[in-house]
Amino acid sequence: MNYGLFLSLFIGYLGVLMVIGWWTSKGGSNLTFFTANRGSHWLLVSFGMIGTSLSGVTFISVPGWPATSGMTYMLMVLGFLLGYFVIAYVLLPVYYRSGVVSIYSYLGQRLGLPAHKTGSLFFLLSRTVGASARLYIVALVMQTMICEPLGIPFWQTALAILAFIALYSALGGIATLVVTDTLQTVFMLLAAGLAFLAVGRGVVPDGQSWLAYLYEAPENTWILTEGPKSWWRQVLGGLAIAVAMTGLDQDMMQKNLTVPELRHSQKNVVLLGLNLLWVNLVFLALGIFLNRYALAHGLSIEGGEYLFVQVITQPTFSMLLQSVFFIGLLAAAFSSADSALTALTTAFCVDFLQIRPDEGPRRRYITYAGVLAVVFLALLALRALDSKSVIDTLFTAAGYTYGPLLGMFAFALVRPRTSFDFNWSILALAIASPLLAWGLSLWAPSVGYAIGFELILYNAAFMYAGLALLARGKRGARARGGMRP
User: Cβ distance 227 to 2 under 8 Å?
Assistant: First the structure.
């Protein structure tokens, strides 16, 4: 493997990102870092969000899905699309009317300060876990491809990636990411498209239609009627996960809120959902080709998440394709982490430190450094756990950490306005609801029901029911208090 070439590509790619970071951060303030002065073009945001939504998990993990679960992931993507309509026409109007920088401020407006802090705290937990899982799989691939043969340990690889991301994103924040995400999306899609063509040529017999080959492949199974990945669980789980991991996620919504007008932001979200349909379909079709190639050449397919890397690094493929793949891998790594670091910094600065837009950047820089340290430790923890199925782990973790957020926002949206706010008992409830959901997931198989990705809905239901009981108790106590002389 030509390590010198890959090192040159890495330095060149990082240089381009640093130039963009310098250009977009000129004269920048906290407001620029948090909101890009609400001046982003909706089409640019929509295209860039494809890369953020896909991340390293899609780039590496989704092509390995057909080897074990066929095309069933597309049912989940269909659920994502339904969820994006909910985001566009239910959540975005609320955020724009509220004029929030941190979307968890809305919980404060509706349910009180403890709800605001609890929502932001669970976002910090959720995004740290999610961003670390996304970044981990790409860092692991880079470790296997480049660093391990050179004797570089994993912790140095992870630290270097985070440091390089900080070099271009720490100053401009969201204003920088709106531009860099677009560039990174181009590289990810280019790498996937070229790999699809190259591997397809290597497996499809001469004279046979590629569509016919994909249609007849044994991996072309879309619908399962039983088990945790049955079709209705995939669709329902996808809908809930899209609403939670995009619509209730500061990272994803922060980009949308940089668009000046609501109607353009709505177009952005709907277009994103439609684009993800065909993009994920390409990645899954690529996965069928990769699986067929691996079986034909005696490659192991047990580690499905590393199938893409195993095949593309074979000497039968050109150095040009491997170079484009490496750039796509870098794009996946950086798009996984840069926006998450910015969103985590924003949420902590706005929700906990209450930093003003006209304040100097010192506290923001300290917060950014702290977020880097936390994500670095999370990467080391994932390395120690050595999870073999990051995409399953990611969505399962989302079911636990995003569930309370989904329940809180659902309650805030439908709750009639009253004069009382929730106290810190809401935090105890947010901790209890994932524990109840976990207990339910352990008990359900005893009655013949295996919970899949719809776990997040049960978690949210526990949170919603708890809030309703707390609200009812407060109304009853207030009514009794009013009857006293």
Answer: no
- CATH of residue 210: 1.20.1730.10
Residue 485 belongs to a domain: no
Q: Is residue 332 domain-resident? A: yes
Alpha-carbon distance of 279 to 55, in angstroms, equals 12
Task: Look at the block and give the residue holding tokens 């590509």.
Answer: 9
CA nearest 196: which of 330, 317, 41, 100?
Answer: 317
Is 484 inside a domain boundary? Answer: no
Torsion of CA 475, 480, 482, 485, to 10 degrees: -170
What gap in Å lies between CA 237 and CA 452, rounded to an integer? 8
CB atoms within 10 A of CB 190: 15
The kind and range of the H/E element at 385 are helix 362-385
pLDDT of the chain, 485 residues: tens digit per residue: 566 777 788 788 778 777 776 776 555 544 544 444 454 555 656 555 665 566 666 777 788 788 878 898 899 999 999 999 999 999 999 998 888 777 888 888 888 889 999 998 888 888 888 778 777 877 777 787 778 877 889 999 888 888 887 777 665 555 566 666 777 778 888 888 899 999 999 899 988 899 999 999 888 888 877 777 788 888 988 898 889 888 888 777 877 777 778 888 888 888 888 888 888 899 899 989 988 988 888 876 555 566 777 788 788 888 888 888 888 877 776 766 777 777 778 778 877 887 776 666 778 788 888 988 988 998 888 888 765 555 666 667 777 888 999 999 999 998 766 556 778 889 999 999 999 999 998 998 888 887 877 888 999 999 999 999 888 876 655 555 554 43
The answer as to whether 296 is a domain residue is yes
Any idea what DSSP says for residue 65? S
**Number of domain units in the chain:** 1
Q: What's the CA gap between 458 and 435, in Å, rounded? A: 11
State the amino acid at position 179 in one-letter form: V
Structure tokens at 427: 């935090």
CB 418 within 8 A of CB 456: no
Burial of 239 per CB tally in 10 Å (0-12, 13-18, 19+): buried
Pull the structure tokens for residue 450: 């295996």
CA distances from 317 to 206, 281, 303, 314 (A): 18, 23, 21, 6
Q: Give dist(CA 48, CA 255) in Å, integer.
A: 9
pTM above 0.90, yes or no: no
